[in-house]
Amino acid sequence: MRQTRWTATALAALVACGGLAASASAGERTPDHTSVGTFDVMSDIQGALQAFRDVREEAHELAPDSKALVINGDIVDRGYDFEYQEVTDIIAETPGPQTTFSSIGNHEAYAPAWCSPTSLCQPSWPNGFTEEELYDSFYAFAGRDEVYAEQVVDGIPLLTLGTERLMWWEDPNLDDHIYLSDEQLSWLRARLDHHTRDGRPVFVFTHYPLYDTVTASDGTSGEFHLQDDQLRQILGDYPQAVLFTSHTHASLRDDRWARRIVVPGGHPDGFTAVNTGGVVNRQVLQVSLGADGARIRARDVAAGEWVQDLVVPTVDPKHRAAGLRVDPVSEHIAPGSSVEVAAEFTNFSRRQLVHVQLEPVVPAGWEAERIAESGRRHLGRGETASATWRLSPVDGAEQTDTLDFAVNAEFGRGSHAGTITEQTSIEVVAAPTGTPYVSDLPFIASSNALGPVERDQSNGSLGEGDGFPLTVNGVRYDKGLGTLAPSETVVYLGENCTRFAASVGVDDRAPQSSQNRPDDGRGDGGDVVFQVWADDEKVWDSGIVYAGEGARDMDVHLNDAETLRLVVTDGGDENWWDYADWGLARLTCRG
């Protein structure tokens, strides 16, 4: 069994210069933990009722005084009421906690692909089901009327999150994506702020993992949270937060089953992310909370052994800790251009940080103009100070290829003074030469309806590099751009390029849902308009291009423009299935 204890470096004394603690590290040692309350965490039952019975019985033998059972999504296989009743019956028939706390998963919404419990009927989806009915079935099992909720069991705080919409009812371009409203996110911050005041861990549950946090979340399974950045930023402010995620069924024996995730600008110790394994693999977690923190143990029921043991320590809220985030508007700029950079400094401790000021460290050949600032000079817990600068090249000064810009956050006086420094790098791009593909050039700006503009593959989902080969009417293109309308891609030309050529069309493949709807989810197949802009002049417009057409070849003069803008709009209707490809997008330039 692997035993780990996170070492929260923010708990240590400040370094001699008065600076704040750096990132957390993990060290190996046998935990010393006295429990004052234990609960069980399971997930992904998905109709594996005998496995659920076996796991629950063994969990009771290991911790007969467990206070609660948390089921972190995929409680059932499809969402039928009788499936929920089967799970309810097993809970009642087996020893163990009768107090349950549940999260909604993707399998709770799969019944619409079936016209009866024994007949799969994808062509007639949703087979009479509605979103409201599916939510009502989950609410009846969970004993509440919202997907996000709080339950405190003998002083143990449990918070669960969940999608407030079944997103592909809302937008056919989406799959089982998770939508968390601003209200839900604000609620989470408020509850974390409340429960972390004593420094003890707080437990948060959501079915899908955040991207690249735990085992198997570095692929498509980690790309379902539409508000991944916002949720990650909130959790990153609280080193006491422990996020439990599921869905992947990944083995709890993997070294990445639990990780400390540090978020830029967040608390230097980050938050803890934990994979729950799955009942389908006969895995369970048991979590105990004590004065010194939380102990999380992973059990392989099939093998009859503990496989992981982790302690997340209590945080002393009186120790100073803060975070600084520095963000440029763009990571690539044209020569001679200005760029705005914003910085935000946050105090995460109970102690007030006084005489706070943000000062830029400007490289030679550049000047910084402060164009905005907010916040007070003295910051209490959770308060921020921010500033924005416009960086501009000094006339006549020699420019480098990279602009390295830093911000110092200074605070305190005398022996209590400290400084945090964060740096960002911005590339000053050069004009292209020869006949480069656009996908090989830096973008000075880009936007896309879902995820990033993809290079040399079709648009996939929220992540970068998650698409498929660019294919239009059966013809594959090894180079080009993959987008979902509306999209815009801007590259710097520096008056050095004369022509642009591409083969454009609607991609043959729309991202397939795990529910396997008919027609590959395509409906009318998509319709888009491609536009090419040389600076502010539109030099080509495709008109409406429909799915199933052959690619349209185009070649236009760029009139020695400074910039090239490649724009895709919808065909005058919704952007459903408007996956637009710029196949073999290529420039002809001097040099």
What does this structure look like?
By secondary structure, the chain is mainly β. The chain has six helices and 36 strands. The strands form eight sheets. An eight-stranded mixed sheet has the order 2-1-16-15-14-3-4-5, with no helix packed on it. It has a six-stranded mixed sheet with strand order 8-9-10-11-13-12, covered by helices on one side. Helix 6 (228-236) links the parallel strand 10 and strand 11. The chain is flat and about 80 Å long. The protein starts with a strand and ends with a strand.
For the termini, the CA-CA separation is: 62 Å
Portion of residues in beta strands equals 35-45%
Number of strands: 36
Shape: flat
How are the strands ordered across the major sheet?
2-1-16-15-14-3-4-5
Q: What value does the Rg take, in angstroms?
A: 27 Å
How many separate helices? 6
State mean pLDDT (0 to 100 scale).
91
Describe the biggest sheet?
8 strands, mixed
Protein traits:
8-stranded mixed sheet, 591 residues, mainly beta, single chain, 37% strand, 6-stranded mixed sheet
What is this structure, in a nutshell?
The radius of gyration is 27 Å and the shape is flat.
Q: Topology of this protein?
A:
Elements: E1 2-7, E2 25-27, E3 38-42, H1 49-62, E4 69-72, H2 81-93, E5 100-103, E6 114-116, E7 119-120, H3 131-142, E8 149-153, E9 156-160, H4 167-170, H5 182-195, E10 202-205, H6 228-236, E11 241-245, E12 258-261, E13 271-275, E14 283-290, E15 293-300, E16 305-313, E17 322-328, E18 332-333, E19 339-347, E20 357-361, E21 366-374, E22 384-393, E23 402-411, E24 418-428, E25 445-447, E26 454-455, E27 470-472, E28 475-477, E29 480-484, E30 487-492, E31 497-506, E32 527-534, E33 537-546, E34 552-557, E35 563-570, E36 579-589
Parallel strand pairs: 1-16, 3-4, 4-5, 9-10, 10-11, 11-13, 18-24
Antiparallel strand pairs: 1-2, 3-14, 6-7, 8-9, 12-13, 14-15, 15-16, 17-19, 19-22, 20-23, 21-22, 23-24, 25-30, 26-29, 27-28, 29-36, 30-35, 31-34, 31-36, 32-33, 32-35
Helix pairs in contact: 1-2, 5-6
